[in-house]
Amino acid sequence: MLTTEERQEIEEKIAEYPNRQAVSIDAMLAVQRHRGWVSDESLRDLSEVLGVSVADLDGVATFYNLIHRKPVGKHVALICDSVSCWLMGSDKVRDHLCARLSTPLGGTTADGRFTLLPIVCLGACDHAPTMMIDDELYEDLDEERIEEALTQYD
Length: 154
Prior knowledge:
Pfam families: 2Fe-2S_thioredx (PF01257). The chain is α+β, with helices and mostly antiparallel strands. It folds into 2 domains: 4-63, Orthogonal Bundle (Arc Repressor Mutant, subunit A), CATH 1.10.10.1590; 75-152, Glutaredoxin (3-Layer(aba) Sandwich). It contains 7 helices and 4 strands. A 4-stranded mixed β-sheet has the order 2-1-3-4, with helices on one face. The radius of gyration is 17 Å and the shape is elongated. It starts with a helix and ends with a helix.
């Protein structure tokens, strides 16, 4: 069941759009902000509010890689795997990060602190390789910059 706060955020978004279906991504992101991910139960609740089928919402959620369909860690680190980042050594960044946190790409640390996910592009190709933790972008990554970034999260 959607919380009062989630429902209020979604209703505010609905007022900004010409129809309820247009709010699908914003509504799923609102649920994700509160719960960390979007469960099947949440999709059913959103389906009723938005008048969109669960299958259509799931299709959007699984296409849009910033919507998490399973539980994630307290912080989500998105590791850019674009061509630009790859050319500038993102594979070394990814390998260091995975080793440092003892989890594979796509995994969550044992303490639930971080989930590491690949992302197609973070749009900062001129500062490759890059990653984003929560809403903070980290550019020109090397092992030292990764360590600096990780210390900022509890």
